[in-house]
Amino acid sequence: MSYQWPLEAKELFAERYPQMAGAGLPIPDVDAVRAAITDMWADEPGGWAHEWSALAARYATAGAHGLSALAYGWARFPAPADEAKRAALARQTEQYLLAAPGFEVAFRRDVLDLPYRGGATRVPVHVFTPPAATGKEPVLLVSGGVDSWKMDLHGLLVTLCSHTGLPVVAFDIPGTGDSRVPMAPDGAEIVRGLIGHARTLGDGIVVHVGVSMGGHYSARSGLAGEADAAVVLGGPVEAAFSHGRLARFGMDGIVGNALGYDCPPSRDDLFAALAAFSLRPLLDLDGQTPMLVVNGADDVHVPQEDTLVFEGRRDTEVHLLPGTGHCAVTELPEVLRIVSEWLPRTLSTLRAAR
């Protein structure tokens, strides 16, 4: 199920340009696509998916499969709400797999059948393994956001794998990417299955790292004591789900599509659905594992309260970085420094406890 909604391409470029350029796409190519696009949904010259797909096809023809996958990722953005964007998502996967032999670390794509709502659901995961891995290391389980999925986060995933020396298992949260079910609070059942699977790939210790809405699920994994530790990068927790949010940059339509609506929901219906995601019941308990919570102070999507609510909690480190926005993407080196300092200390403690 999916639907289109009023959305200005200029607005999206204004917000996402640093992400587009920072991921590795040549800036002149990004600028050319930006100048050519005049409509978000038209499947013709000037349309978002058309122009990004044309760039991706040129990269593919030149054998630049990694760049092609990045460009197709933007072609299907912000949600696969029509045939052109769904086709772009399929081509992104094709190009990504063609690029895989050139990744800096070993890679494979596994397809899991995990329990969900009394049945099972298909969950493809991407597994990155550093060269020196022995199979006896902790595993990082990484979840992307509601509009930036595991293939879009490739650079971050490889960096985490390389810098930590740990295997990384990446997945798309429910309602996004390869997922076959809508986003829902009980999607945590799927995450529990993924944590269980990740335990079999290493020494049994699993750290759940979540980015954006993926950070919501990692926050839940940590607060519920399901993962051994959790990193929350820009995750909505409680205040972000309150009435009146999601008003900017098409986020209401992005989230509505992820929730499985086939037409634009009313504001009241949308906010009622989101209210069920609040982690307040878990925040009121004390069953959490060690947690690292990081975000930018100027995030337009997730209010500061959803980071600061973790201050003073047991086994929790909190960083609200000034001068940067959602997930602190413009200060990624600083975020990686924080993670690289917190992770060894935390793993040492977890190993000692075992």
Notes on the structure:
There is one protein chain. By secondary structure, the protein is an alpha/beta fold. It folds into 2 domains: 92 residues, de novo design (two linked rop proteins), CATH 1.20.1440; 251 residues, Alpha/Beta hydrolase fold, catalytic domain (Rossmann fold, 3-Layer(aba) Sandwich), CATH 3.40.50. Helices cover 42% and strands 15% of the residues. The chain has 13 helices and 8 strands. The chain has an 8-stranded mixed β-sheet, with helices on both faces. Strand 5, helix 8 and strand 6 form a beta-alpha-beta unit. Helix 3 packs antiparallel against helix 4. The mean pLDDT is 95.
Essential attributes:
354 residues, alpha/beta, de novo design (two linked rop proteins), Rossmann fold, 2 domains, eight-stranded mixed beta sheet, 13 helices, 15% strand, globular
Structural topology:
Layout lengths: L8 H14 L4 H10 L11 H14 L3 H11 L7 H17 L6 E11 L2 E11 L9 E5 L10 H11 L3 E4 L16 H12 L6 E6 L1 H11 L5 E5 L17 H8 L8 H9 L4 H4 L7 E6 L8 H4 L7 E6 L10 H22 L1
Parallel strand pairs: 3-4, 3-5, 5-6, 6-7, 7-8
Antiparallel strand pairs: 1-2, 2-4
Helix pairs in contact: 3-4, 3-5, 4-5
Shape: globular
As a percent range, the share of strand residues is 15-25%
Enumerate the spans where pLDDT stays under 50 for 5 or more consecutive residues: none
CATH architecture of the largest domain: 3-Layer(aba) Sandwich
CATH class of the largest domain: Alpha Beta
| Name of the CATH homologous superfamily of the largest domain | Alpha/Beta hydrolase fold, catalytic domain
* Structural category: alpha/beta
Largest sheet data: 8 strands, mixed
**Annotation field: number of helices:** 13
What proportion of the residues is helical, as a percent range?
40-55%
Kindly state the mean pLDDT as a whole number? 95
**Largest sheet, spatial ordering of strands:** 1-2-4-3-5-6-7-8
Distance between the termini: 45 Å
Q: Using DSSP, what is the number of strands?
A: 8
